[in-house]
Automatic annotation (TrEMBL):
Domain HTH luxR-type span(s) in chain numbering: 139-177
Domain RNA polymerase sigma-70 region stretches: 29-95
Any Pfam family matching the protein: Sigma70_r2
Function summary: Sigma factors are initiation factors that promote the attachment of RNA polymerase to specific initiation sites and are then released. Sigma-S contributes to the protection against external stress, thus playing a role in cellular fitness and survival.
Keywords carried by this UniProt record: DNA-binding, Sigma factor, Transcription, Transcription regulation
UniProt-recorded name of the protein: RNA polymerase sigma factor SigS
Family under the similarity heading: Belongs to the sigma-70 factor family.
Organism: Lentisphaera araneosa HTCC2155
One annotated GO molecular function: DNA binding
One example of a Gene Ontology biological process annotation: DNA-templated transcription initiation
Length: 193
């Protein structure tokens, strides 16, 4: 998948709000928003509704959004909206007495530092998954299998044996794919954040 620059996408959303731009935004950022909502101990049956609430909040906030790298990353802005929406919904549910006590207790254990760590971890995971999806189609089956073996924690010797290729070839593939992944993660970080 090739992304247009995030700033261009933000401008299109702010200026025209067309459906195609919104679908593109959804496709790019929905997995990140979802991972934050999940990490905040939200009950499974509420996640989809919360996701929609967050996306509506983002839609409403976009006209006033001005990107300033000095003030922070785009992912932080998006995470802040997500976290505030989740907290607001959970507070409303707790007032209505319908909140799950286990989730309530676990949320109290989270402080702002924990939330920042969660956001950073989920953003890194999101970038890694997206980068792998973007590059894996262009890799040879052997390179892809080697790297998947490395990710799974297999030893070079074991991967070579499984794929019937020399160990040094496995090492070369591992190194090449690592470089490609780092470049793609960096590109995504620049483009989406």
């Amino acid at each position: 998948m090739t992304y247009r620059t995030r700033l261009t996408l933000m401008q299109r959303l702010k200026n025209s709000g067309d459906d195609k731009s919104w679908e593109e935004f959804n496709e790019i950022y929905r997995p990140f928003i979802y991972s934050i909502v999940r990490s905040m101990y939200v009950e499974a049956h509420l996640i989809d509704d919360l996701l929609q609430d967050v996306l509506v909040s983002v839609w409403k906030a976009l006209p006033g959004f001005e990107y300033d790298p000095e003030k922070g990353r785009f992912s932080s802005w998006l995470a802040t909206i997500t976290i505030n929406r989740v907290k607001s919904t959970q507070l409303k549910r707790s007032r209505q007495g319908a909140r799950d006590h286990k989730a309530f207790e676990r949320e109290d254990e989270l402080d702002e530092g924990d939330l920042e760590k969660i956001v950073d971890r989920e953003w890194a995971s999101f970038l890694t998954k997206t980068a792998w999806e973007n590059i894996s189609e262009d890799l040879s089956p052997a390179m892809k299998s080697c790297f998947e073996g490395v990710i799974a924690g297999k030893k070079v010797r074991e991967i070579g044996k499984d794929l019937d290729i020399p160990e040094n070839t496995v090492s070369i593939y591992k190194k090449r794919v690592s470089v490609i992944m780092r470049r793609e993660i960096h590109r995504l970080e620049e483009e989406l954040n």
